[in-house]
Structure formats: structure tokens, C-alpha cells
């Protein structure tokens, strides 16, 4: 650590040859998102209706995008000086404020939520302005990002002073600007593509964060009720669902797709990598809540429709997202696995629609078997080599 060190470009041929891992500061930054995701899950757990799920997604989007913004900045321009540390520390406070305002985040706490998000974006704009000042080759991209995120931050700030429900219009406009900024900067990204080792690791760490919610859900579900054999079995099956989803994601993730995309100039692969992970992490976070509700349900009574939809629909969303990532080659390119994930998602949705009357243990057992089958299929097929991969697609 140095007192004052300007941002430096962390990508390019020389830096790509250096081992690049998440820094201790990035890992500390991730801790506040553990809390934020936990608060989101707590909100959903208290309202598992369709409106409750949509509200969960509405609050999840800005929290996830706040993590994405800081991660992509650090991927290209990370430095370890006091200035960067202080800015990151203030961003941790902003995200902590977001987490505090998640409860009633679409109601009486929505103004605080908006101001917290706007503060985080302003701090990110400051980071990009520093990079633009000190890195001439990246000045165009950094300035473009700073302008786009500044506009989004302004919309979120104004929203705090606009009455409900009009406030949410400004939220939507702010998110559209935020999400569109990287898409509109494709020309400026040529020659400044993300670091190929650091990016998959960081996305993997956030995936671990949301998977952790499923483990917490298993523990919470079994600890809040009297010991019953069926509940214990449901907890084991819930853990197996999380383990299976971990397996089929991390067994197939890697940097080869990004490396090939960089070599061929297919910038759209980076965009699919970025936005394709959103439904996956939403599904993973919601799966934990679904598991907890199944464990807490009365074993001898049919699982309520809302809980059945939450568990089956969340895992189906994960599988659809993985199918997209397989199909586009963002993770291991394989049409067989893509079709397998998609077909299994269809089965889960059929259970959600027509599974009225099924007991909780039956529903979670079916979901666990379908999830485990994904692992078995991957093991049977094996991980194709570069030459075999082309034959299987």
C-alpha cells in the first residue's frame, strides 16, 4: 500500500501474464453484499407471492449492479493507495445503507434506498474520473462510463424527492441508463477488454455469496422447528440442491470463452457474460428462500402453491440461465448441456403448474433429483477438450 498511487491499467499482454486474484479489499467489500443479499432474502421470505418476488427482483437489481460496477472498475484499473481504499470504504458504507433500507425498500424506506444507491454511483464516478485523468489510453472509456453513471446517479437522487409511485419511474430510468452504458461503449472497449482471469473469479465469488443463502436457509429452517425425520430429510435435500447447482456452475466456468472472444473481437460475449449471470444469481438467492419454506412447512399437508412455485420456479430460472450461458459459450460451450438444462427447467415449471396436492417432501425431492441429474449428466458426458467441444456443438 502506498500513500498516493494513481490508478493503473491492469489489462493488456503484460498484465495478463501476471497471476491476478481478488484483493483483500475486494473480499472485504464482498462482505457487505452478504448482508445485503441476506436482507433481500429475508424480505422475500415474508412475502412469497408474485408481487413479493417482483419486489425482491426490483431491489436485487440495483444491489447487484452496484457490485458489478465496482468489480468491473477494479478489473481494469485497480490500485492499492489510500485514495482508492477510502473510496472503497465509503462504497461499503453506501451498500450497508442500501441493506438497511431493503426493509420497506419499495415503501417508506425507498427514499433512503435511492439516496444510498446514488451515493454509491457517485463514488464510482469519482473512481472513473481518477482513471481518466491518469490513464490516457483509457480516457475515452473511463469518461464515457463516468458520464453515464453520473446521469443514472442523478436520476436516483432526484427520485428520493419524488412521491410514490412516480419515484419508481426515475428508478427505472436510472437503471436503464446504468445497464445501457456498457452496451453503448462497445467501440471504446476494444483494446480495453476485462482481465481474463480476474473476471471469472469475481463472478464466481458473488455466485458463492448467493449460494450461501441456500445453506443459511437450510440451517434456519431446521433450527426454528422441532426435530422431525421428514424435516431433516427436506433439509438434506435442500442442501443437495445447492450443492448440485454449485457443481454444474463451477464445473463449467472458466476464462476460455472470454479469451476466444477477445482474440476474435466478439465483444457481445462479454455482454452475455455480464447480463446472463443476473437471472442465475436471482434464481440462486430465491432458491434458498424456497428451501427454507419447504423445510418449515407442515410435512403432512400439501405444499402451498406459492411455496411450490418459489422453489420450482427459482431452480428453473437457474437452469434456464445456465442453458443460455452454455449455448452462447460464455461457460463451457455445449448444446447438449444447454438442452438438458432447458428440458429440466420445463419439467420443474410443469411441477409448479400441475403439482397441486404434492407434499413438501415430494416437491423438494423431485427438485433435488432433477438437480442431481444435471451433475450425473455432466459427469457422464465429461468435460470436452477443445477439439471434442467443437464436435459436440
pLDDT under 50 segments (min length 5)? 386-393
What distance lies between the first and last C-alpha atoms, to the nearest angstrom? 47 Å
Number of strands: 0
Q: Please write the string of helix (H) and strand (E) elements.
A: HHHHHHHHHHHHHHHH
- Judged by helices, strands and strand pairing, the structural class is mainly alpha
Report the helical percentage: over 70%
Average pLDDT number? 87
Largest sheet: none
Shape: globular
Overall tally of structural domains: 2
Cα gyration radius (Å): 22 Å
Strand content: under 5%
- By DSSP (H or I, 4+ residues per run), the number of helices equals 16
Give the secondary structure arrangement, pairings included.
Layout: H1 13-16, H2 24-45, H3 50-77, H4 82-100, H5 110-134, H6 139-159, H7 167-184, H8 186-189, H9 198-223, H10 229-250, H11 256-264, H12 268-296, H13 305-328, H14 335-354, H15 360-381, H16 386-392
Helix pairs in contact: 2-3, 2-4, 2-9, 2-12, 3-5, 3-12, 4-5, 5-6, 6-7, 9-10, 9-12, 10-12, 10-15, 12-13, 13-14, 13-15, 14-15
